[in-house]
Design goal:
With 222 residues, the chain is α/β, with parallel strands linked by helices. It is built from nine helices and nine strands. Strands 1, 2, 3, 4, 5, 6, 7, 8 and 9 form a nine-stranded parallel β-sheet that branches.
Length: 222
Amino acid sequence: MTSLISERIAHIRASLPPSVRLIAVSKKVSTELIREAYNAGIRDFGESRIQEATIKQAELQDLPDITWHFIGHLQSNKAKKALELFDWIHSVDNFKIAQRLNTLAEELEVNPPVCLQVKILPDPHKSGWMVSELLADLPTLDQCKNLRIQGLMTIPPLGLQDAEIVNVFHRTQKLAQEINDKNLSSIKIEHLSMGMSGDYQLAVSAGATMVRLGTILFGDRV
Ligand SMILES: *Cc1c(COP(=O)(O)O)cnc(C)c1O
């Protein structure tokens, strides 16, 4: 039986280069629909709230080969739980939380892959580093040896024209190159987590390696 979700997934998967990782953003989506997506082949799921993820992951324990991606703003008091529940953290958005995660990762004996969230343009609604701030913090971030800092994540501000959105994505790609050119000892950017339902094609054209898609797979969130 094919479902609406499996048709959408097949359609989007076919439109993406095979190397781009499709992360199904399942925040506010029921575990029934997550199972449908799983049955259609999705193994990467993104959640943005720790409490919600705790409940859903418990209900989905019979699906052990899911890779869970945390994509929301992380509060310090939830950092330990985030490391316990999630394989990837895309939304490391300031130096303090990076340090906290690094300390906790050592205690928990994990080495999670993470993305640093950057704001290419100022955006009061989003957290993350401005580019100049990130460049300044890199040497100390490079000391966070328990984190595998492998990616940059970005979300363009709302209301931009396509050309401006593409520009944000291209600048993120350039920033990754600039960081890699520094040859830091532990930071190597190999992933660009960028692109949501409304702009993922633009993101892919600018080098996204991971797209985070919610609405276009699951429909509008209630
Ligand atoms: C909700 C969310 C998404 C998915 O957004 P859609 O527009 O529904 O595809 C992607 N990334 C982050 C960080 C989100 O919070």
